[in-house]
Amino acid sequence: MAENSDIKPQTIDAAILELLKAPDIKNLKDEDPASFHHFTGRWIRNSWGLWDTESALYKEFNAIGIFHPDDMSGIILETAHRIINGKPADLAGQISHYKAYWDKIGCDMSGNKIK
Questions:
Q1: CB contact burial 29-57 (16+ within 10 A = b; e otherwise)
Q2: 5, 44, 59, 95: least CB-packed within 10 angstroms?
Q3: What is the pTM of this model?
């Protein structure tokens, strides 16, 4: 991923397309996208401004109800995985998955405890 270190996608679609250009991303085909969370996911979060609440990409995720950078990079990775494997992106289903996770642990989608 380092060869694209100067690129900061401004939209979710641009982020997914940029990830799909990476030479080693085809390895994602046979792997669980969660296994990429700590390396590729961290690179996405740090390099593409997902910790920056003023970045366009962060704001677009917020607009669709995703507030935690781990969830944002997870959606980018999961969507790329689905595309590589010829499956529908199912963004609505992915959002529902993260919402259910946060509800189950008693937090809002930013990770703050619900009173």
A1: eeeebeebbeebbebbbebbbbeeeebeb
A2: 5
A3: 0.86
Q: How many CA atoms lie within 13 A of 97 on its CB side?
A: 10
Taking residue 10's Cβ as centre, other Cβ atoms within 10 Å add up to 14
End-to-end CA distance of the chain: 40
Contact indicator for 58, 49 with CB cutoff of 8 Å: yes
Integer Cα distance of 48 and 10 in angstroms: 8
| Domain ranges (residues) in the chain | 9-104
> How do residues 14-69 score in pLDDT, each as one tens digit?
999 999 998 877 777 666 666 677 788 999 999 999 999 999 999 999 999 999 99
